[in-house]
């Protein structure tokens, strides 16, 4: 046959059978893959990811992006439709929601990997699209898998403080979440009936009683998840479920302690921070050190002043602040990375400082500015409700001792239920603004 005819013939056969390797059905031979196992992992992910999504959206609301300087995602447009004024009660709400967001997200990693393993043949399905509905499903699957991998990888790197992104984590994670959520909704709408039928096809308890010797492939399915020529099993479905569940429990056990005070904090081996944070009463988590953010002893020494900017500008020394009425409250610091801790803070109420600047509490918000020279979150804005809460403090002491330099000496913000990055350290200026109300 002439070469010019032979090439089109090979191309046609290649198009019918698919490229070699993972694009051909015989490449995937695990006898465990099938609609039932995929559905089990999928339903666990569906429930878990629903919680992760809701707590993630609440985390964004807690940043009060409506206030000046707080929005790390410019141009959010319609994506901020649900935003509301973040409450100060209960004081532990952000600690719970963000802790659940991070710890549950980490716990779901083995389930996510198992789900991706169970459907990986679909990513190499050939031809790429046999119909419009299949094309929509394939696109949603690519966006779903890509979005899940992006969200989990960037989230875990951020938790571990590995800021290796060529982009800002906050807007990327925010917009990536919406893309992932849209793909998830489409995928669930398309596949939920199939998953429900698959779950009814065999009993969960029966599978847990089935050992390796009795493990058989599932019947052939129209989606092609079941291997065309399955190999002999080396693990039962019970073993697979135990392996994935055990991995999730292990990650949970090594992570959850960072959200709790007491002995369990020592079990948080996956926490990105060390085990010693400061002297005596200051021995609790530090996310960023003074040295790391360019804060020097000169910035916080005897020359330091707190400037109150308002209708009646005031400059106060630390001694003058300590001479004012002081109040003590047990308040948590809860960080976006998932760790949290409750300590006793002593300081001057923001409401009293608002009065000193010439404003009635409840009518103004405030922007707190740090002396830090580098890094993000050198300032944060708070709503009138947050300023008026009697537990909102310019904290000067913690657990009965002066703040250490790494914990914000000479003064830091403590507002109930605010994200940790908004508990601004090394504060030197408070700008009260009626337009924030």
TrEMBL record:
Transmembrane in keyword set: yes
Domain of life per record: Bacteria
Keywords, in A-Z order: Membrane, Transmembrane, Transmembrane helix
Biased composition (Basic and acidic residues): 210-219
InterPro entries per UniProt: Di-haem_cyt_TM, OxRdtase_Mopterin-bd_dom, OxRdtase_Mopterin-bd_sf
Keyword Membrane: yes
Oxidoreductase molybdopterin-binding domain location: 301-435
A Pfam family: Oxidored_molyb
Membrane-crossing segments per the record: 36-63, 100-120, 141-163, 175-199, 240-260
Region named Disordered: 210-229
Name this protein carries in UniProt: Molybdopterin-dependent oxidoreductase
Organism annotation: Nonomuraea salmonea
């Amino acid at each position: 046959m002439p070469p010019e005819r032979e090439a089109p013939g090979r191309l046609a056969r290649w198009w019918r059978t698919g490229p070699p390797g993972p694009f051909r059905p015989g490449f995937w031979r695990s006898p465990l893959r099938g609609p039932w196992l995929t559905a089990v992992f999928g339903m666990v992910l569906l429930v878990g990811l629903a919680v992760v999504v809701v707590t993630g959206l609440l985390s964004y609301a807690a940043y009060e992006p409506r206030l000046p300087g707080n929005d790390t995602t410019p141009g959010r447009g319609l994506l901020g439709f649900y935003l509301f004024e973040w409450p100060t009660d209960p004081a532990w709400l952000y600690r719970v929601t963000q802790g659940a967001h991070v710890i549950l997200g980490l716990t779901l990693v083995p389930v996510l990997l198992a789900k991706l393993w169970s459907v990986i043949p679909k990513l190499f399905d050939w031809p790429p699209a046999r119909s419009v509905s299949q094309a929509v499903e394939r696109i949603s699957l690519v966006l779903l898998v890509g979005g899940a991998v992006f969200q989990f990888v960037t989230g875990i790197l951020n938790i571990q403080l590995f800021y290796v992104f060529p982009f800002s984590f906050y807007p990327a994670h925010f917009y990536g979440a919406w893309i992932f959520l849209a793909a998830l909704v489409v995928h669930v709408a398309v596949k939920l009936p199939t998953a429900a039928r698959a779950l009814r096809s065999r009993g969960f308890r029966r599978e847990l009683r089935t050992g390796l010797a009795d493990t058989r492939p599932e019947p052939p399915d129209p989606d092609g998840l079941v291997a065309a020529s399955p190999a002999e099993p080396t693990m039962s479905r019970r073993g697979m479920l135990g392996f994935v569940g055990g991995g999730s429990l292990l990650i949970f056990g090594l992570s959850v302690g960072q959200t709790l005070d007491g002995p369990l904090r020592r079990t948080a081996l996956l926490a990105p921070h060390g085990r010693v944070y400061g002297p005596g009463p200051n021995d609790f988590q530090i996310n960023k050190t003074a040295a790391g953010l360019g804060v020097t002893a000169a910035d916080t020494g005897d020359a330091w002043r707190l400037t109150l900017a308002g209708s009646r500008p005031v400059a106060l020394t630390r001694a003058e602040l300590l001479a004012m009425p002081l109040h003590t409250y047990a308040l948590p610091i809860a960080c976006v990375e998932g760790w949290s801790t409750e300590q006793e803070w002593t300081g001057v109420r923001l409401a009293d400082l608002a009065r000193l600047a010439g404003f009635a509490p409840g009518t103004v918000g405030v922007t707190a500015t740090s002396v830090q020279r580098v890094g993000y979150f050198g300032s944060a804005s708070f709503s009138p409700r947050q300023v008026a809460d009697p537990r909102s403090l310019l904290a000067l002491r913690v657990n009965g001792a002066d703040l250490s330099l790494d914990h914000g000496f000479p003064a830091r913000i403590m507002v109930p239920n605010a994200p940790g990055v908004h508990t601004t350290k090394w504060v030197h200026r408070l700008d009260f603004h009626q337009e924030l109300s």
